[in-house]
Design goal:
The structure holds two protein chains of two kinds. By secondary structure, chain A is mainly α. Chain A is 74% helix and 0% strand. Chain A has two domains: 66 residues, no CATH class; 54 residues. In chain A, helix 2 crosses helix 3. By secondary structure, chain B is of the alpha+beta class. Chain B has one domain: Winged helix-like DNA-binding domain superfamily/Winged helix DNA-binding domain (Arc Repressor Mutant, subunit A), CATH 1.10.10.10. Chain B contains five helices and three strands; from the N terminus they run H-H-E-H-H-E-E-H. In chain B, helix 2 crosses helix 4 and helix 2 crosses helix 5. The two termini of chain B are 21 Å apart. The chains are: A mainly alpha, B alpha+beta.
């Protein structure tokens, strides 16, 4: 029965290791062995019986397809992280402008302009996050 | 042997029917199909296991390990109530399909 074993393992070589795969190999082997026994009872030599069982088995393309789990599309939701990043980023940038403004030109208040510009960044990402929810 | 691509689409129902009659294991099913069709149709075992996988995933059948035999523990399949309902549905569908195809295929010879 070693030949059967070898053949079945060969068949399943491309399939990623998993508990499921092991179980199926076991099941397949068990059934094949029973078939070989049957064929031998019908008068075939062991070698003929094994060969016939292997040929009858066919190729396992269909089975492979069933076995390969569709890659779970757990695309991480990045919108929340992006939003947080944009908020922290814009706070830092605005703080920088405020500092420069009051440190170097305390008489002219101009930091409001760049603040409005920068705020578009978190605002955009905020709505993208809303859409995603 | 008959061209199998037409039968292919109905393999799930064929296997389900056999499991519906009684709990069965893989080799038994392939033997049963061969003997009932008088060897006019033979299922490739590899295909059979794909069918099991599919049916099990859809929860139409479930499996359990049965008695020891020559090779080891046999894996048996039993039909679920969902499977029974599905089978009933398929039978109706098939009857309809057959009638339609018959409309065009009968009376040609």
């Amino acid at each position: 029965m070693n030949k059967l074993n070898k053949h079945v393992n060969e068949l399943f070589r491309g399939v990623p290791e998993s508990e499921k795969k092991e179980k199926i190999i076991q099941e397949v082997l068990q059934n094949l062995e029973e078939k070989v026994m049957d064929l031998m009872e019908q008068g075939k030599s062991e070698e003929d019986a094994i060969n016939k069982a292997i040929v009858d088995f066919g190729d396992i393309e269909d089975l492979k397809e069933e076995l390969v789990e569709p890659q779970s599309v757990h695309k991480k939701d990045m919108t929340k992280i992006n939003l947080a990043y944009s908020i922290w980023g814009s706070i830092l940038i605005i703080a920088l402008f405020v500092f420069i403004n009051f440190y170097y030109t305390p008489h002219v208040i101009w930091f409001v302009y760049p603040t409005f510009v920068v705020l578009w960044w978190p605002l955009t990402l905020y709505f993208r996050w809303l859409k995603r929810r | 042997m008959i061209r199998s691509d037409i039968i292919r689409g109905h393999l799930d129902s064929i296997v389900l029917r056999l499991i519906f009659e009684e709990d069965r294991y893989g080799y038994e099913i392939s033997k049963e199909i061969s003997s009932r069709t008088e060897h006019r149709f033979q299922i490739k075992e590899a295909t059979l296991y794909a069918v099991f996988q599919r049916l099990e995933k859809k929860e139409l059948i479930e499996s359990y390990y049965g008695s020891f035999s020559n090779g080891g523990k046999r894996k048996y399949y039993r039909i679920t109530s969902l499977g029974k309902a599905f089978l009933k549905e398929t039978a109706v569908e098939w009857k309809e399909t057959k009638e339609i195809i018959d409309l065009f295929m009968e009376g040609l010879d």
